[in-house]
Inverse folding.
C-alpha cells in the first residue's frame, strides 16, 4: 500500500467515524427534544416547550453531518430521525396502555409523562422534517454558490432560514386553538430567541469535523 492510498484510506475512515458519531448525537438530540416538547415550562416570563432547550443543537449537528458526509446522507438522516421519533412515540403509547403489574403499583406516572400527545408529536415531526430540509438547502446554496470559506457563515445562514420556519410550524400546529393565543405567541417567540442564541453558541462545532472532498 503506497503512502497516498494509505492516506486516503485513513481520511475515509475518519470521515466515516465522524459521520456516525455526529449522526448519533443528532438522532439523540431529536429524540430528547421530542420528549421534552410534551412539557410547557415558564422561563423569564415566557412559555416554552422544554424541547426547545436541546432541539436547536440539531441544526448545527445536521450542518456537521452535511459537511462530513454530503447532502444525500444529511437528507437520509433527517428522514430517518423522523421515522425513529414516530416509532418512539408509538412504543411509548403501546407501553402506556398495556395493563400494569399492580403488585408494584399503578405506575400511572409513565403514562402521564411519556404517553404522547399526538398533536404535539405530529407537529414536532412535521416541523423537524420541513425545517431541516430547508436548512440543508440553505447550507448547500451557501457552499456551492457563495463560498466554501467562512464556515461559521454557512451555519448562520442555514439556521437563520430554518429556525423561524421550524418555530412557526411547531408552535401553531401543536398549540393553536387549544391554548390561549398569547401563550402560543409566547412559545413561538421564545423558540426563536432560544434557538437563535443556541445557534450562536454552537457555531464553533462546524470546525470540529473534517470536510468531504
Amino acid at each position: 500500500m503506497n503512502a497516498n492510498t494509505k492516506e486516503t484510506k485513513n481520511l475515509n475512515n475518519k470521515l466515516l467515524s465522524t459521520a456516525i458519531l455526529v449522526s448519533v448525537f443528532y438522532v439523540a438530540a431529536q429524540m430528547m427534544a421530542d420528549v421534552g416538547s410534551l412539557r410547557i415550562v415558564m422561563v423569564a416570563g415566557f412559555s416554552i416547550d422544554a424541547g426547545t432547550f436541546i432541539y436547536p443543537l440539531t441544526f448545527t449537528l445536521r450542518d456537521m453531518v452535511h459537511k462530513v458526509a454530503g447532502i444525500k446522507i444529511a437528507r437520509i438522516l433527517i428522514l430517518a430521525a423522523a421515522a425513529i421519533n414516530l416509532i418512539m412515540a408509538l412504543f411509548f403509547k403501546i407501553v402506556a396502555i398495556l395493563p400494569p403489574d399492580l403488585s408494584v403499583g399503578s405506575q400511572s406516572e409513565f403514562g402521564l409523562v411519556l404517553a404522547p400527545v399526538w398533536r404535539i408529536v405530529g407537529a414536532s415531526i412535521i416541523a423537524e422534517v420541513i425545517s431541516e430540509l430547508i436548512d440543508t438547502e440553505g447550507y448547500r446554496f451557501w457552499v456551492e454558490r457563495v463560498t466554501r470559506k467562512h464556515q461559521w457563515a454557512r451555519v448562520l445562514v442555514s439556521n437563520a432560514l430554518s429556525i423561524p420556519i421550524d418555530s412557526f410550524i411547531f408552535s401553531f400546529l401543536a398549540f393553536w386553538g387549544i391554548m390561549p393565543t398569547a401563550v402560543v405567541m409566547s412559545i413561538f417567540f421564545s423558540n426563536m430567541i432560544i434557538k437563535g442564541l443556541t445557534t450562536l453558541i454552537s457555531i464553533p462545532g462546524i470546525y470540529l469535523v473534517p470536510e468531504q472532498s
